[in-house]
Specification:
By secondary structure, chain A is an alpha/beta fold. Helices cover 46% and strands 16% of the residues of chain A. In chain B, 46% of the residues are buried. Classes of the chains: A alpha/beta, B mainly alpha, C alpha/beta. Chains in contact: A-B, A-D, B-C, B-D, C-E, D-E. The structure holds adenosine-5'-triphosphate (2 copies) and magnesium ion (MG) (2 copies). Chains B, D: One of its GO terms (cellular component) is plasma membrane.
């Protein structure tokens, strides 16, 4: 009998392609009883459009987006897969010791006004130093690529970028001025908080319980492989478009570090705390009509699925 | 207009007595010639009709992807009062205005030259087509990379994108200019500038109007992309934020706000120009 | 004292046959020359070449001793075969266009003299064909030209108006002392106005006949002298008007 | 052309004998009228000049952000042979062609109607301005959401974006059509279709040419965005991928490849049309 | 047997004064009526109203018993005051435009009869003013009209050509038995051609005089009968041509 299809929308250049490639290569989809159809898309917005217009069943996105859609009566839910990492990058030789030294300096932010790390950073600066980083520095928002270019050229004094861009910055001699764990710590949140995950429509998941279960298992299996096997990384090196070994190793470690290992009650509480912080700083433009974390934002799943490997020591969590 | 009305709210009380005098003075002069007020009414009626139609369709469709007119209106209100819509509109409007003026000026000059001198046209035709077809993304990107992430880079990107389309249009107009009338100018030895402004340009007006109208909209579309890629304010920046969260209501709110501004600009600038130009034409 | 020297070896339009063939004549200062020729023989072309609108590759146009190429160096007035008014300018603006510093009463006087009182603020399209033509006549008069080229100026005007304008033209030429080349199809008009008539042939056009009109001025339009002079000319060269060599 | 030459490579041996005959037959007929070959030469010269200039500037600037011409050429070669540039170009070209034809047809019809009937114009003017100023992003987004992520939604989005600009241009042209010539058509009782095609349309040609020229480029720019937001192939999709990796060379390679196709289209379609239209005009 | 009934109470352009004032006349089938009036008196306006190009709010135009609004129901030929050829069509295409099924030799014959042999493939801009006018005459003849409106058709044509075309017009009318309204400024031409002449006044124009021309046909253009008839008319009504009421 023919196995059901699962249509996955991914960014053509996104890191999720690595995982997809592993699934395909090891025929994990067949193993878990479904067929994976991949639709390459041009931008993050395109994947949102694709999910809304039923062109795909699953996309990779963040839980805030899902929560906000839920507030707009769209029954979407998310299975978290990765945690928030990274932080604020500065050049290695930058004199800045903490965020206060960035006063009147140019700070680039890749994710726009409502970038999670940027909002967390604002909360952190205020809580830790009473420093209004939004108004006392010169933040400018731009596309992630441009941010990297300008950082490397020294036209920006600090920057917040997505992790795989951050990895490149690190490889090119930039350091983290503040890390996300530091920020969370300062905000009294001691657990990992999820960032991205597989989002899908809940009715679809209910109708295709086997498919979604198979898909999640396959995805976790692929992550397990990427987590433990260096040979696998060598195989997919072409996909990472790493320009040199340094970047490649960086990407590898950062990827492993960013994987979510547990999502229990503690993490959920941490997420709720984070939501409160973000809602306070991001305001309406971030959370929209969602005033609280919807209980169905996260897909109810078997917790044992996630407990598959030990947490790596986060080098940046000093 | 809503957007702009908000600004002087605080001083409204202070001038409340002078206001009606001012209005009654002004209105018969500028606003309420009969034709103008009829036109204004018809315009408002159209806008209302579009709004009502929209609302009805939204009720019928009843999908979260199709926000109703009232939802959008209340979103506009929200953004005006709580968000920085005014700031963003103002930033975008500024960019649009500056790049519109620059690109129309340069475009008309180049277009006239290319249309008038067929030798020059032959030389630069290929370059024009190349310039016309370089994607906005590429120009914007290169401008930002080469000039840095500054306002002038943004303006330059828009202008570079827009000039070729103006040139193409004006060139076509300059090609069909009536040589007989130019002969009159030559015989009666009008100075080059008089010839240009009094004989040449009036024949280009239809082309200039067409390129100004479509140009304004094109420019604002490019400005959106420019703001998306490297500015920290403006409608494009706001739209992108909305888009990230798939906030269709918010997107439509910004769109409507900007379009209503454009409608005002149309009514205040293009329409009087139109009338001026139509004088003496076959329409009268 | 030849003021204008016209020498055109030949004139050919692109993709066309020969239009003018060895046209050569002089114009004394203040002389009034009429040109008569069949339709399509090249009269307009000739005026265009004299005024510099058409390039003259083979030949030369010399005015007041200066050869010119392309652009006349002196004020010339040219009444084109079509009125050629700017449709976006009112009558007054059309006149001001060619002579920006003329006074309003100069203009209204001039308009009155061509029978267009009070039409200053009309746009050309609201005028009849004949009225537009009269505006174009006024335009040529306004600039006080040294050389006046007229291409069938009194065409499409009724007889009394045309007579009035002929008189106006004569007065203007006397006052202004300008040389005139006057293209017409009407022998009677030519005899009434001109000092000399050039007859052109069918294209490729040559000057088939020149006739000096020695009648003394002032002449009368359908005076007996003029009519008999005309009859005598036609009797002597019966096929002159047809443009064929006799 | 490089791009298209690659396709029949495999069957080249088979037809190798017939080819020259075909060429010699064709060339004197189509290609090598003297004017055309002169024009072709000048065009090639321009392209070469632009290339050389570029190369020199690239040497002088010597920045990784300013790739040299040769680097771009080799990138084109790479993408042609290794990547799916052909596929992407083909997909984009298809979309551009279809939406161009549709939007020109609809746009000309609406524009003519609006320009001819001033009552209709008054009614729809406001709607036109609204349509003109809805950001491409919004139309595209709504089309995709409502019609699904299908090809027809993409085409519809482009067409909806383009029609208003065509309408604006053609309307301006229809307004200045010579009423005297239309009177001739009326007196001699030409059928409406004859009047339209033989009397009305020829007067619009300059406007149609202008809007076709600028329209082609605008459409391809919109197609880029459309592909970015919801297609999995096409130049826009490829460009964005390059952009994400900051592969300026790749971006320029795709741009150059597409522009060279447009240059061919220009030469093969618009230029002959231009000449056809210029017949009988003041230019000859 | 009145074929065409024209009754115009008044005609006023927007923002204009009264142009026509109580114009009323009939045209018998096959009748040739000439209209003479000062420039700008409303002759073109009158033809436009008869042909339906200008709306006639107050009054009625009845042709063959049928009143019409806007669009003529019968074939009419109208030679406008300007040639109005389509510049983007060759001469032949301009003619084919109004009569698509005419044979090539019909066209070349017609062109030859107006003196334009071999000009089929020329574009209008390469023709002289008079040649363009002749094409527009040929165009009107081509459609075999029942009613022919001519607005100063032989203007800007040299005397022999004009004479030839007048002859052609007479022949055409006889063969075609069409009614003709002929606007001219030339009394002699009117006397030569017309069955009746209407004289219009200065605007607001009325018909100040109607004169039936009872000279028998064929007439000669400058025949003694015709000239004396003309002289007698002018003697009786000296101010007729000036358009004032006598
Ligand atoms: N632009 C042109 N291109 C080609 N041939 C032309 C052009 N203009 C005029 N001709 C030809 O040149 C000849 C003379 O034209 P021109 O206008 O000088 O005649 P004309 O004597 O003024 O006639 P008319 O009395 O009818 O005005 C005509 O045979 C005409 O066909
Ligand atoms: N479109 C218009 N709008 C306003 N007034 C007009 C318009 N057309 C013509 N007129 C006026 O109507 C009057 C008659 O014009 P018309 O063209 O009928 O004169 P006409 O008798 O044909 O003169 P001509 O012999 O000079 O051709 C003129 O005074 C003119 O100013
Ligand atoms: Mg002439
Ligand atoms: Mg008239």
């Amino acid at each position: 009998q023919k196995s059901p299809n699962v249509r996955l929308g991914v960014l053509k250049y996104g890191t999720v392609n690595w995982e997809v490639d592993v699934i395909k290569h090891h025929k994990l989809d067949k193993k878990y009883g479904f067929t994976l159809d991949v639709l390459s898309l041009g931008s993050k917005n395109a994947s949102a459009v694709a999910l809304q217009s039923d062109a795909v069943d699953i996309i990779l996105t963040d839980w805030l987006w899902v929560n906000r859609q839920r507030a707009n009566d769209k029954d979407i839910t998310l299975f978290p897969t990765s945690i928030a990492t990274g932080g604020l990058y500065v050049a290695n030789d930058s004199p800045a010791k903490d965020v206060r030294d960035l006063a009147n300096k140019r700070v680039g932010i890749a994710g726009g006004e409502v970038d999670k790390n940027w909002l967390l950073l604002q909360a952190y600066a205020k809580a830790q130093y009473g420093f209004d980083i939004k108004n006392e520095t010169k933040p400018s928002f731009m596309s992630p690529v441009l941010l990297n270019v300008l950082m490397l050229r020294g036209e920006l004094d600090a920057g917040i970028n997505f992790w795989h861009y951050g990895a490149r910055l690190k490889a090119k001699g930039h350091r983290l001025l503040v890390t996300v764990p530091e920020i969370l710590h300062a905000l009294h949140i001691e657990n990992d908080v999820p960032l991205l995950g597989w989002a899908f429509k809940k009715p679809w998941a209910e109708q295709h319980a086997n498919s979604i279960k198979g898909f999640l298992q396959a995805s976790l299996a692929a992550k397990q492989i990427l987590y433990s096997s260096d040979e696998e990384w060598t195989r997919i090196r072409g996909l990472t478009k790493a320009e040199d070994d340094e970047v490649f190793t960086r990407l590898q470690t950062e990827y492993r570090r960013g994987l979510l290992h547990r999502f229990g009650l503690q993490e959920l509480t941490a997420t709720k705390d984070i939501f409160a912080v973000l809602a306070q700083h991001g305001g309406h433009s971030l959370v929209g009509n969602a005033t609280s974390l919807d209980e169905h934002t996260f897909y109810a799943f078997d917790q044992r699925l996630l407990s598959w490997n030990p947490v790596v020591e986060d080098e940046s969590a000093r | 207009m809503k957007a702009l009305d908000d600004i002087p709210k605080h001083s409204a009380n202070q001038t409340v007595i002078n206001w009606p005098v001012f209005v009654t003075r002004l209105s018969p002069m500028v606003f309420l010639t009969q034709a103008t007020s009829r036109w204004l009414l018809s315009r408002i009626a159209t806008v209302l009709a579009v709004g009502v139609l929209w609302q009805v369709v939204a009720w019928l469709v009843a999908s979260p992807d199709f926000p109703s007119c009232t939802a959008v209106l209340s979103s506009i209100h929200f953004h005006l009062t709580q968000g920085d819509m005014l700031l963003n509109l103002w930033a975008t409007l500024n960019r649009v205005a500056i790049s519109f003026v620059i690109s129309m000026l340069i475009g008309v000059v180049i277009g006239v030259l290319m249309g008038s001198y067929s030798q020059l046209n032959k030389l630069t035709d290929t370059a024009l087509i190349i310039a016309l077809n370089v994607p906005a993304l590429v120009t914007i990107l290169l401008c930002y990379i080469w000039f840095g992430l500054v306002e002038s880079a943004a303006i330059a990107a828009v202008v570079l994108n827009k000039i070729p389309t103006v040139v193409v249009m004006i060139r076509e107009g300059a090609r069909v200019v009536d040589r007989d009338l130019l002969a009159v100018a030559k015989i009666y030895r009008l100075s080059p500038s008089r010839t240009f402004f009094k004989v040449f340009l009036p024949q280009l007006y239809p082309f200039i109007m067409a390129s100004a109208r479509s140009g304004l909209s094109l420019i604002w579309k490019i400005v959106l992309v420019v703001e998306l890629l490297g500015r920290s304010d403006g409608v494009g920046f706001a739209l992108n934020t909305q888009f990230q969260f798939f906030d269709i209501t918010g997107i439509l709110a910004y769109t409507c706000a900007f379009i209503s501004i454009i409608l005002c600009v149309e009514g205040a600038i293009f329409r009087p120009l139109d009338k001026l130009i139509a004088r003496g034409s076959a329409h009268g | 004292m030849a003021e204008l020297n016209v020498r055109i070896e030949n004139k050919q339009y692109i993709h066309g046959t020969n239009v003018l063939d060895n046209i050569e004549f002089n114009l004394a200062a203040g002389e009034f020359v009429a040109i008569i020729g069949p339709s399509g023989c090249g009269k307009t072309t000739l005026l265009n070449m004299i005024s510099g609108l058409e390039p003259s590759e083979a030949g030369s146009i010399v005015f007041e001793g200066e050869r010119f190429y392309g652009q006349m160096c002196t004020q010339i007035g040219y009444i084109f075969q079509q009125p050629r008014l700017m449709p976006w300018l009112t009558i007054e603006q059309n006149l001001l266009l060619v002579q920006p510093n003329s006074r309003p009463d100069t203009i209204s006087e001039l308009l009155a003299s061509v029978g267009l009182e009070g039409k200053q603020d009309c746009y050309p399209r609201t005028l009849s064909g004949g009225m537009q033509r009269r505006v174009s006549i006024a335009r040529a008069f306004l600039i006080n030209p040294k050389l006046l080229l007229l291409d069938e100026p009194f065409n499409s005007l009724d007889a009394p108006t045309a007579a009035r304008l002929r008189l106006l033209l004569i007065k203007f030429c006397q006052r202004q002392r300008c040389s005139v080349i006057f293209v017409t199809h009407d022998l009677q008009e030519a005899v009434y106005l001109a000092d000399r008539i050039l007859f052109l042939s069918q294209p490729p056009s040559r000057i088939v006949h020149q006739e000096s009109i020695t009648l003394r001025r002032p002449r009368t339009e359908s005076g007996t002298d003029e009519l008999s002079w005309q009859a005598a000319l036609l009797a002597k060269h019966p096929s002159l008007l047809a443009g064929s060599v006799n």
